[in-house]
Design a protein that fits this description.
By secondary structure, the protein is α/β, with parallel strands linked by helices. The chain folds into 3 domains: 336 residues, 2-enoyl-CoA Hydratase, Chain A, domain 1; 154 residues, NAD(P)-binding Rossmann-like Domain (Rossmann fold, 3-Layer(aba) Sandwich), CATH 3.40.50; 124 residues, N-(1-d-carboxylethyl)-l-norvaline Dehydrogenase, domain 2. Strands 10, 11, 12, 13, 14, 15, 16, 17 and 18 form a 9-stranded mixed sheet that branches. Strands 1-2-3-5-7-9 form a 6-stranded mixed sheet, sandwiched between helices. The radius of gyration is 29 Å and the shape is globular. It catalyses: a (3S)-3-hydroxyacyl-CoA + NAD(+) = a 3-oxoacyl-CoA + NADH + H(+); 3-hydroxy-2-methylpropanoate + NAD(+) = 2-methyl-3-oxopropanoate + NADH + H(+).
Length: 637
């Protein structure tokens, strides 16, 4: 692509913006090409770091290419801009969260969309020509592409000042405010790049950087903090109107040019985001609420008209008197519901093998999320919206991720023998079955030899969690494979915990369910004892659920009908988690305990009880909490 040059050199992935005559403005195609490159290099062992730079002395990237947004927006088509922002913000998040060093060289202007590309990496280098700014309020937008994330973390009230005034930051200011990390004279940049390409070691930058120039913003921060400390844009405007001095006069002149609505939104967003739980994704999701609406309900189209179409520099802003009603801010920042930014990509190609009670709903949720799913099940089960394969190998061919949900380790090994040879290098085999640790580790080793990533990711949450997309995944395998599968975990579940190396996901599941089996037996025993002691079940629950006997088995999944939150006990013990599945997991725990020479007497006892319940009594096909009616009928002898 002529506007962006993507290649590998030595230990580095190289991305160079190559449209200097347009100040390297970021187009949609450049954004997508950049994202694909960092996706490809994420799991490439030959790429140790990523270097992002740009041609020409005037600009690293002076912003996004917004002319097409204006044209389509004026035609009443808001979807082009929304898609641009949605995909651009996803790319911004990936840069901020990238597992490898991302080194950017920020000469000249770095503004708007350029900040999103150049200022979220791990090693951001500025020189004497660097001028970094977030000027979006001047075109009726808000500081986006993660700009609010950076601004909300700036010292004191400098975030409000930079966001409202579009103040340009030289190298000293950029480092002081957190938009950059290192200063180095620009005539040394080629040497720095050559060293990075040769060594792949970003730590060398610190030795080649020089002392950062002084920051004018740091010198004036006390005045800025006082002037921009108001709770709303109106408060800040009043402070500036009634203050004297160069800082106040310069700031007031700047904000008088900008959209009052945009500035009021910026203040509100920074105040919402300034909290310990701040993440880049929270900031981008909040920004997208505005950008999704800004062409239709904000000042964006008028701002572009005045700035780059008619160039009359006389925008007709909403709320031109500066009095922005709170309701106008609230409407722009309301959650978007199903239109919310979810960081979903256009879709992976997924093979799904095993479409039973758990696998079927999981596959259906992936289809609904926009992924291309090809399913295979020995029983011929099909999923609406998914293609059907005649073999497991066919389902795996060409897939980015192959998901399996299978009954046991022996079947997993057999399926792995079929699918791993059919998988493309770099793809990920994601096994969500509950199997023995040894099988999980052997399959992972087999996948590694074929150049395929592997994860063992058993689930907790049952059929309801599979249908509702609220499963918890316990994941073993490499960090790189985990990052590849993370967007899918976010669709199929509410939590995914990376537990370490291959097999550790199964180990976590086995240990968790051994605890669950033991505590459910103890809970059922205690209710049966309470009955025989004349203690009501309601009183028993009220005491235990708020004291030292508290457990998930009691508080969330109470085995006594009509007591506590609704559970399978209230539905005749129809299974949410079948007793035979608990028996399977307990047997796996004892198999693992024997292999590890671990003493697990309670796990052993629970296994024996569930074996008796399922195989010799009436437990087969009932929920594992149906141990309670079993104990009701048993006497001590």
């Amino acid at each position: 692509m002529s506007d962006i040059d993507i290649r590998t050199e030595g230990r580095a992935g190289r991305i160079t913006l190559t449209r200097p005559k347009a100040l390297n403005a970021l187009s949609y195609d450049m954004c997508i090409a950049l994202e694909k490159a960092i996706d490809r290099w994420r799991n490439d062992p030959d790429v140790a770091l990523v270097i992002i730079d740009a041609e020409g002395p005037k600009a690293f990237c002076a912003g996004g290419d917004i002319a097409e947004m204006y044209r389509t927006g004026m035609d009443g088509n808001f979807d082009f801009g929304r898609k641009f922002w949605r995909d651009e913000y996803r790319m911004n998040a990936k840069l901020a969260e990238y597992p490898k060093p991302v080194v950017s060289f920020l000469q000249g202007f770095t503004m708007g969309g350029g900040v999103g590309v150049g200022c979220h990496g791990s090693h951001r280098i500025v020189g004497d020509s660097s001028q970094i700014a977030m000027p979006e309020c001047g075109i009726g937008l808000i500081p986006d592409v993660g700009g609010t994330y950076l601004l909300s973390r700036a010292p004191g009230r400098l975030g409000e000042y930079i966001g409202l005034t579009a103040s340009r930051m030289g190298p000293g200011d950029a480092v002081y405010t957190g938009f950059a990390d290192f200063y180095a004279p620009e005539d040394s940049w080629d040497t720095i790049k050559a060293t990075l390409i040769e060594t792949g070691d970003a730590a060398t930058i610190r030795n080649m950087a020089q002392a950062t120039p002084e920051s004018p913003l740091a010198a004036t921060q006390p005045q800025i903090d006082a002037l921009f400390s108001g709770e709303s844009f109106g408060d800040i405007r009043n402070l500036l109107d009634n203050s004297t001095g160069e800082v106040a006069e310069k700031a007031l002149k700047a904000i008088n040019r900008n959209s009052p609505l945009s500035m009021a939104l910026t203040i509100e967003m920074l105040h919402r985001l300034r909290a310990p739980s701040l993440t880049i994704r929270k900031a981008l999701e909040l920004e997208y609420r505005v950008s999704h609406r800004v062409m239709e309900h904000g000042d964006f189209l008028e701002g572009i008209r005045a700035a780059i179409i008619d160039k009359d520099k006389s925008p007709k802003w909403q709320f031109a008197d500066g009095d922005v009603p709170a309701i106008a801010i609230s409407k722009m920042l309301m959650p978007l519901g199903r239109d919310s930014l979810d960081f979903r990509e256009d879709g992976m190609k997924i093979g799904f093998i095993g479409l039973g009670n758990m696998g079927g709903p999981m596959a259906a949720n992936l289809v609904k999320a926009g992924h291309t799913v090809t399913g295979y099940d020995v029983a011929g089960v099909t999923i609406d919206g998914a293609s059907s394969a005649s073999t497991a190998a066919e389902a795996a061919t060409g897939a980015d991720v192959v998901i399996t949900m299978l009954p046991n380790g022996g079947i997993l090994r057999s399926v792995a023998d079929d699918v791993i040879p059919a998988m493309k290098p770099g793809a990920v085999l994601l096994d969500c079955s509950t199997v023995d640790v040894e099988s999980a580790r052997d399959v992972a080793a087999q996948a590694a030899k074929a150049g395929v990533g592997a994860l063992d990711a058993p689930v907790s949450g049952g059929v309801g969690g599979a249908s509702g997309g609220t499963l918890t995944f316990m994941v073993g395998g490499s960090q790189a494979a985990f990052e590849t599968a993370k967007p899918l975990f976010d669709i199929m579940g509410q939590k995914a915990v990376h537990c370490g190396e291959a097999g550790n996901g199964q180990a976590a599941k086995i240990c968790n369910n051994m605890i669950l089996g033991v505590t459910m037996i103890a809970t059922c025993e205690a209710f049966a004892l309470a009955d025989k002691l004349g203690l009501s079940r309601e009183a028993m629950f009220d005491v235990v659920s708020t004291s030292s006997g508290y457990s998930w088995s009691m508080n969330a999944y109470c085995p006594a009908p009509g007591v506590g939150p609704k559970s399978p006990a209230d539905n005749g013990y129809l299974p949410g988690f079948a007793a035979e599945l608990m028996l399977k997991d307990l047997r796996l725990s004892q198999q693992a305990a024997e292999a590890a020479d671990a003493d697990t007497p309670m796990g052993e006892a629970a296994t024996a009880l569930y074996s008796q319940f399922v195989e010799n009594e009436d437990g087969l096909g009932r929920d594992f909490s149906a141990m309670l009616p079993r104990f009701e009928t048993k006497s001590r002898g």
